Amino acid sequence: MNSSIELLPDTCDILVIGAGPAGSAAAIFLAKAGLDVVMIDQHVFPRDKICGDGLIPDAHRALARLGVLDEVMRQAHPSGFVSCISPRGGRVDVPGTVAVLPRKQLDDILCKAAVAAGARMFAPVRFNASIEEGGKVVGARLGHQDEVREVRARWVILATGAVPQALMATGMARRQTPTAIAMRCYIKNDAMAGKIDKLEIIWHRKLAPGYGWIFPCGDGVFNVGVGVGLSGVPDAQASKPGASKGRVSTANLHQMFDTLGTLTESARELMAGGTRLTPLKGAPLRCTLHGATLSRPGLIVTGEAAGSTYAFTGEGIGKALETGILAAEAILQGKAQDEAGVRAMYESHIDALRPRFALYERANLVNRYPWFADLLIWRARKSPRLQRRLSGVLEETSNPGSLFTVKGFVRLFTE
């Protein structure tokens, strides 16, 4: 990693803005193919990143394609189940390939893999603006403190996450506000290490239209947080001090987090007897592949900047990795075509993902109406077939939205 902006080259094949999962995934693929890749980030790695840290099956598959799964799993805390906990205390353990690794470690592994593949990484460097000629993006103006450099590239990949400033600066933002927001902190409680060994997701009317989670990171450390979608938030909440209409105030999220610690016995034990290792911090989410234009001449938007987070679960790591890979594949497979062909290929790959994102948006009804979690978990405890369907949702072999149709509702009582 280079720390001096003065070392930035004047030109490269690919300029990747943002070294998180999407940016690093694209850089790994492109650098391995022999392209000259420059990657920049405004933070020096390793750095903290607000996230639930859960790695579900789509993340495992993407990490395997990138060649880093073994290294990730050496540091991660594996678990074979996600525990879904309903408002009345019902619980069903859904089997799946899951693990937890703090983003500080995960993103560092990915960034180092990109550098090992041949990409050049520069940080701290901020993105100021795109360079455009004849309606095409041909590079970017980058800065650090008072220094500014211009780097020209055949393609600029924007992988800047949920914060919309870079999207706005390049004219790619269709929505400036986030679609959800989450808060989390790390809590250490050695006494709970053997009691909470699965990823727990908790629904309750006091958390609606959101949910809570407790994810074991290993060594008695837990990622504990709450998340809420900003659509469907009651105006009474949105109008509280510190919030604008359609938003949830920081105070509301703190209240949700405190409430989480009263809802289950394990949450009470963990939070009452544990030590907070970090402050409670919040972060925006961009979901459902909405809110950004995917490409324009010379520029591709990928990862959470493109809305790669699932609305229902808030999981975004796997799809950020996947969209970064898709951006790289479009550039590599389409290099014999004209630029429009590359863009068309990338956008068609993303469009192919949209039906699944739409189904997860429909499944988001559980967060808004937690009584449905009571019904679903009650039935799943009695139906091995329904448990297999829920496992299929986690593994992405089943349709999550089918549970939220009239036919799916009837099947809850017949399976």
Describe the protein in words.
This protein has helices spanning 21-32, 57-66, 69-75, 103-117, 165-169, 235-238, 250-260, 265-273, 317-333, 339-363, 365-368, 371-382, 384-395, 406-412; strands at 11-17, 37-40, 54-55, 77-85, 91-100, 120-122, 126-133, 136-144, 147-158, 180-188, 199-202, 210-218, 221-229, 275-276, 281-285, 295-296, 299-301. The chain has 415 residues and is α/β, with parallel strands linked by helices. The protein folds into 3 domains: 5-50 and 105-175 and 287-363, FAD/NAD(P)-binding domain (3-Layer(bba) Sandwich), CATH 3.50.50.60; 180-285, D-Amino Acid Oxidase, subunit A, domain 2 (D-Amino Acid Oxidase, Chain A, domain 2, 2-Layer Sandwich), CATH 3.30.9; 377-412, no CATH class. Strands 3, 4, 5, 10, 11, 12, 13, 14 and 15 form a 9-stranded mixed sheet that branches. Strands 1, 2, 6, 7, 8, 9, 16 and 17 form an 8-stranded mixed sheet that branches. The chain is globular, with a radius of gyration of 21 Å. Residues 232-246 have low confidence and may be disordered.
